[in-house]
Structures are given as structure tokens and as C-alpha cells.
Specification:
Structural class: alpha/beta
Helix content: 25-40%
Number of strands: 12
CATH topology of the largest domain: Rossmann fold
Strand order of the largest sheet: 6-7-8-3-9-10-12-11
Number of helices: 11
Number of domains: 2
Distance between the termini: 20 Å
CATH architecture of the largest domain: 3-Layer(aba) Sandwich
Largest sheet: 8 strands, mixed
Radius of gyration: 21 Å
Length: 344
């Protein structure tokens, strides 16, 4: 049984301008001890998907209109806040995107770390403080015994991120959700944070959902990758599949917009022209239709299914239909087979 299963999840937000269809039929699964990276541009629905799965979106204005979220086989959609609170912080830890706004500026970091320990494990007083010191030491904050009594503003950005990680792993969760854990950090600190997450995963056997737009981070951390665009999964597969055998034009566009550190590489970066579609009124067909250099007439009115490209690798693109084989671009689908049968 998968640790986490998200099936056909739909999430909407009611605003003064209308209803935003933020997540449109996302299906994902994650096994124990594995890392799933969810990749895409800002606003594609990465964070909303996971936050909705964990019951963290405000309702209203947000609402889950359809779908199922199973954690260890137990349905989370429709659970009360009290029921979800018994899971969040204990079985599921979360590293939020901006530690400065996620940490309470009026509370010492030690007290914030021990909140979960008091609630889930009944620790208090000296025992809780000792555990907080141990957690700060584990995430490699120097002089942890002193720093436990400091406020968030007394830490650098990288150190605040480490405090967030200490809070997230306080109760040894089975699943860690890391929402852009290296945003706004310099390259050296980013590498340290990723090394820390890998070490903690090996130590605790955690599964990790990594939400990011940085393909370099994905290459270092992920086992499986789900590429999102306009609230939908457009490609999913192993990290090798997505990096070396991209099967969707959007995935290729993301790769071409990423600098390479390969020696002798002087290729010009190719930005993705245009803008994502308006999710107040999503297009009926492929959401990438207006930006795709290989778009066909069928892409505008008809939404492509998630075609199986190879075992464990699928892409939502009409170019995988056998009738479109003649239009296959040379830079896509290396090693892939065109399909004309039943989609995934």
C-alpha cells in the first residue's frame, strides 16, 4: 500500500472575480522512504495540491470539489480539523516556503519546536527543552543550548530554514512535505539544506514530497517527478525519465530554460514564450496549447489523456497518439513509443 495516494483531486477558490479552478484532476502516489518532486511554474497548483491534501487551505474561500486523499489507507478529505491535527505534526511534517512568515516572531524558537512535542507526545518542561536542543543540534545549528532561547529574527535565512526543519521532524514523521525549502537561499546554504534533508530521510526512513520550480534541486533529491501545469499533471515518471527522456513539450521547455554546468556548453537559454492560461476559465483542451511550438488542431478543443510512454512514465500530450507520429519533434520522446491504444 502506498503511503500517500491522491486521486482525481479538484480544488477551487471563490473570489470577487469568479471561481479559480486551481487544481484540476491531480492523481499522485508516494511510497514509503521515497522522494516525489512536484515541479512547475509559480501558480501551477503545486503547493495548493499538497496543502489541500493535508487540509491546510482556508475553507472558504477554498474547497475540495472532488477527489480522494488516502494516507496509510485512511481518507483525509472531509476529516475534521481535530482529526487532521492528530496526523499533522506527528505523522506528517511540513516545511513551509518562507520561514520568516511561518515562524512566530514573538516566540523563542525552542518554544515553537516543543509545541508539537507537547501536543503529540506529552513532553513538557525540561524534557521538552532537552528534545528541542537535540533537534537544533541535529539540524546542525551551532551552540544549540544557547540558540534554543533566541527569537527568529536572531537567525539568518538559512538558520531559520533549519529551525523549520527541526519543527517538522520533531515527532519523526512518516511523510515530510518540503514546500520550496531552498527558496531565497544562496547556493552554498541550499546545498547544505538538501544534504540535511537526505541525511534525515536515511535516518528516519521518511517519504518526502518536494515542491519546487528548480530542476537542479529535483535532480539531486527526487526518485519520481510530477510536472504540473495549469492545475494538472502533464508528465510523471522517474527522475531519469523526466530529465533524459522528456515526453511533454512543457517539460522540455523547462529543461531548455535551465542553465547547464557541463564543460564547453554554450547553448543559448530558450525561455518559454507566453503566459499560463487563465484558471478562472481554463481552456477545454490542452492548457499548454497557446505556448506549444508543436501544437495541433486537436490540442485546442480536446484535452489529451495521460498516455503511457513507457513503464512508469506518462505524459498528457496528443503527440503520443500514433496518428501524430509524423509530427514527432526530434528533441522529444527519445526511446519512447507512440501509442494509439487506451490512455493511462
Amino acid at each position: 500500500m502506498s503511503l500517500l495516494q491522491i486521486r482525481d483531486l479538484h480544488v477551487e477558490f471563490s473570489t470577487y472575480g469568479g471561481v479559480v479552478k486551481a487544481v484540476r484532476g491531480v492523481t499522485l502516489s508516494l511510497e514509503r522512504g521515497r522522494t516525489l518532486a512536484v515541479v512547475g511554474e509559480s501558480g501551477c497548483g503545486k503547493s495548493v495540491t499538497v496543502q489541500a491534501a493535508m487540509g491546510l487551505i482556508p475553507m472558504p474561500p477554498g474547497r475540495v470539489t472532488r477527489g480522494s486523499v488516502l494516507f496509510e489507507g485512511n481518507e483525509l478529505v472531509g476529516r475534521s480539523t481535530a482529526e487532521l491535527n492528530r496526523i499533522r505534526g506527528k505523522d506528517v511534517g511540513m516545511i513551509f516556503q518562507d520561514p520568516m512568515t511561518s515562524l512566530n516572531p514573538t516566540m523563542k524558537v525552542g518554544k515553537q519546536i516543543t509545541e508539537a512535542l507537547r501536543f503529540h507526545e506529552g513532553l513538557s518542561g525540561a524534557a521538552a527543552r532537552a528534545r528541542a536542543v537535540d533537534l537544533l543540534d541535529r539540524v546542525r545549528i551551532p551552540e544549540a543550548r544557547t540558540r534554543v532561547d533566541h527569537y527568529p529574527f536572531q537567525f539568518s535565512g538559512g538558520m531559520r530554514q533549519r529551525v523549520m526543519i527541526a519543527m517538522a521532524i520533531a515527532c519523526s514523521p512518516k511523510l515530510l512535505v518540503a514546500d520550496e525549502p531552498t527558496t531565497a537561499l544562496d547556493v552554498t546554504v541550499q546545498a547544505q539544506i538538501l544534504d540535511l534533508l537526505r541525511d534525515l530521510q536515511r535516518e528516519h526512513g521518511m517519504a518526502i514530497v518536494l515542491i519546487t520550480h528548480d530542476l537542479g534541486v529535483v535532480a539531486q533529491m527526487a526518485d519520481e517527478v510530477a510536472v504540473m501545469y495549469a492545475g494538472q499533471i502533464v508528465e510523471q515518471g522517474s527522475v531519469d525519465d523526466v530529465f533524459y527522456r522528456p515526453a511533454h513539450p512543457y517539460t522540455l521547455g523547462l529543461k531548455q530554460a535551465m542553465p547547464s554546468d557541463a564543460e564547453g556548453t554554450r547553448a543559448r537559454l530558450e525561455p518559454i514564450e507566453g503566459s499560463p492560461p487563465d484558471l478562472f476559465a481554463p481552456p477545454p483542451g490542452c492548457p499548454y496549447f497557446e505556448r506549444c511550438p508543436w501544437a495541433m488542431k486537436v490540442c485546442g478543443p480536446d484535452l489529451p489523456p495521460l498516455w503511457p510512454v513507457q513503464a512508469g512514465h506518462a505524459a498528457r500530450c496528443w503527440l503520443h497518439h500514433e496518428a501524430a507520429a509524423a509530427r514527432r519533434p526530434a528533441r522529444l520522446f527519445q526511446g519512447a513509443e507512440m501509442r494509439g491504444g487506451t490512455p493511462a
